[in-house]
Design brief:
The structure is a single chain. This protein has 2 domains: 1-274, no CATH class; 287-539, no CATH class. The protein is globular. A two-stranded antiparallel ribbon has the order 1-2. By secondary structure, the chain is mostly helical. The protein is 73% helix and 1% strand. The model has no long low-confidence stretch (mean pLDDT 83).
Amino acid sequence: MFAGTWTLIKLILRRDRIKLPIWILSAAGFAVLMVPLLVKTTGSAASLAELATSMQLNDVVKLLTGPLDQATLGGLFLVKTSLYTALILAFFNTLLVIRHTRQNEELGAQELILSGRASRYSPLLAVLTVALVSNILITALMGLGIATIANEWPVGQSWLYALSMGGLGLAFAAIASIVAQLTETSSAANGILAGVIGATFLLRGAGDVLGTVVAGVPTPAFWSYLSPFGWMQLTHSTTFGYWWPLLIPLVFCLAAVPCAFWLLARRDLGAGLLPGRRGRARASRLLRTPFGLTWHLQKNVFMGWLVGNLVLVVVIGSMSNQMDKVYSASSQLKDFIISLGGSGAIEKAFLSAMLTYVAALTLAYVIQSLGKLRSEEVSSHLENLLATKLSRIKWLALHVATALTGGAAMLALSGAVLAISVNVAGGGSADIWAYTCGALSYWPLLLVFTGVYVLLFGILPMAASLVAWLGLCWVVFVGELAALIGIPNWLRDLSPMVHIHPAPAEAIAAGPLIAMSLIGLALLAVGAISWYRRNLAEQ
């Protein structure tokens, strides 16, 4: 029934021999390295107590990072690391499963694999086995590293933290195995899973915001119990240390994985259980143009990230009327917000800081959108397009322009909606034009990353996506922690975002934006020339 599974496992390990170690080390390393950094920067017991009191009153903090369990280093560790680590694991597992199931079917590779001695169930079992082993390795490295470094809480709680993360990763791998049976394309599957990750993150956030404190323990509302992120947080691993929530992802996986195999048995190879939407009998005039086809390929990615951005800014804007008293009550939170959002009134600094999150999400959209360059090339769709009158440079320019224009529209809309939400909520009088321009000031950041991506696409295409995502992780890491951990200035300056003055709390500085734009354009030019000169599907 599962013939050829071991051979397929070796094939997956061969294909992902670079990606897997990077994902595993990134997920485990982030949590482990945060321990000494927080030990170095944690204030006195009095300042931690002050911070805990302020965070309990702040619904936005609860929504984004969860409540602070205790005024201890363990409680601060959970708030600073758990949800970021969980997001890394969620995307790692979902992308891994879809890549080696639905994407293989879409490219025709699965049919070739099954023409041998492999069972039709073997590819799914093989990738789930790799996911299981990968999560075990992450759990082991994380648990061993934290237990070795952290002396502030019991060793068992370090392993509880690692096990809760491993359980979350396996839960999302199980969810991805089901979604892989539903759609006909990998892009649709990844889009659905991105929506699932976002929805479950918001469910956990709603549970934390609506939760209560029972006998000194923050207890979330019902909604958190519907989310793998909520299951992970229920352990309160480095504070109260509850082991029973580990059973929830275990039971979920034992139910979800057989369901995935059951669904696999009831569909045809290459087909999805959800019916594909029937297109028009004849393509529209726009779709018959190169731009129309490019937009058709990109529109779902754009709409998904746009909705996520708008939901985030509406929620933040609606809660802005709490910011002044909450952040002013805690010197640590106030300093943190000023480090992100600039000097001036605390409310404006907070909203400017939130625009950095919008910029990071928009940058993620641009990177995913540019991923179409490589996917169209390796799927041989590009070869057919270039057999027409479409030139290489025009094809590249269309995809780059679509990504950058979509990024600009996303930034502008997010900034405007944030200001409107603030005004509607009564949190102040926010200038819509100022917030729109403040959001658009991050567009040169998108241009720099686009230039790096295109350059690598021209000279080392297999590394383009990986380097871009790692760069995004670095930007987020520096933005969140540079002010807290005191990293060297030269290392901090490697993040392009630190050179952008946070607007509207501070005036927009034209110099860095012009310099970044010129660098991005130069990288684009070199990348375009490299792409023009190399062979198609070059490894």
